[in-house]
Amino acid sequence: MKGLSLHHFRQLYLLITRRGPGYITYLLIGYLVPWLGYLLLNTVPRSWLRRLVLGGFLATSILFFSVVGWLWGIGVGLFVTIITGLIGWIAIVTARKVAHFQKRKSILSRLSSLETVSSQSFVAWEGYPVEEQVRRDVESTVSDALSGEVVLGEIDNDGRVYGLFGPLPYVENIPENEFMPRYRFGLQIVLLDGLVLIKKDFRGHWEHFANESHNLLTLQANANVPQIYRADPQRCILYKGLIPGCTVRDLLVKAGANILTVNVEKDPSLQGLSEDERIYTVWARGRECLGLALPEAFLPQLEQQLDRIHACRVARLSLTFGNVMMDARDGRPWLIDLEGSTHYGPR
Question: What is the model's pTM?
C-alpha cells in the first residue's frame, strides 16, 4: 500500500459518497479479493499454502458440520417440544370434555329426580294474594292453556314487573311502556301446576344453566336459595320457587337511592365515566341508603347465609342489590342468582 496518503483516502471517501455504499462491495470483490489472492500465491511458500488450504478446508468442514448439528439439535428439540405440547393440549381438552360430560350427566340425573319434590316448598296459587279480577282472568286463561303454563308477569332489567293480567303482589308493578328489556336471561312469573314460580330462560346457554342448577341443588337444603321445581335441559329453562318479598334494590330505591337502570342510563353525572367507574358510583349510591332501607338484623343474617354457602364449597356469588331478597314473611335474606357462582367440589 506504498504511496497512500491522506489525499488518496479523501478521494476514496468522495468517490464512495458520490457512487453510494454499494461501491464498497464492488471494490472488495473486484480489487481487494484478487489482490489478496495474488499476494498469497506470490509471497507464501507452496508448502505453507497447501497447509493453509487444507486447514481452511478442515476448519470449514468442522464449522459446517457443527452448524448442521446445532440446527439439527434445535430442530429435534423443537419437534419434541411441539409434539409434547400437542399431546398435553389433547390430554387437557379430553379431560375437560370428560369432566364436562360427567358434570352434565350428574346434573341431568339430579334434575330428573325433581318430580318427587314437595309442592309445600312453593307458593300456591290459592294463597297468592292477587286482586280478585286478576284471579278470575288468570283462571279463565288456565283452562284454555294447552301447556298448563300461564305467564303472569314479565320481570325487567330493574326487577320490576309488567303484569299481563294486572298488578302482582310483593313486586313493583309498571306499565308496559316503562319496561326495560333484560340484558341477559329472561325472567317471568308463571303459574304452573297450581304453583306460582319464577321461570328463568338461559336462552340456550348450557354452561350457565348447568352452573345454576348444580349450585341450587347443592345449596337448597343448607341455605336460603330458591328450590328448583322443574327443569328443561333441552331448552335451558329453570322453574324456581318464588320468594314472597322484594329485592334489596327495591328497598334502596324506596329509601331514595337513584340506582335503577332506567334512571342511570341517562344520568348526566355518569356521562364520561368508564364502565367500572359507573358501576362503583351506582353501588356507592345504594350503599349510602343501606342503613335506611334494611332492618338492623338483615346484614348479620346475610353474613350467616354466606358462611353456610361457603361451607358447602360454593363461592363467587353475584351479590348485587338485585340478587338479594328480603322475605316479606319474616325478613330473612335470600340469594336468588347463582348462575355465576362456582362450586369447588364435594367436601
Answer: 0.71
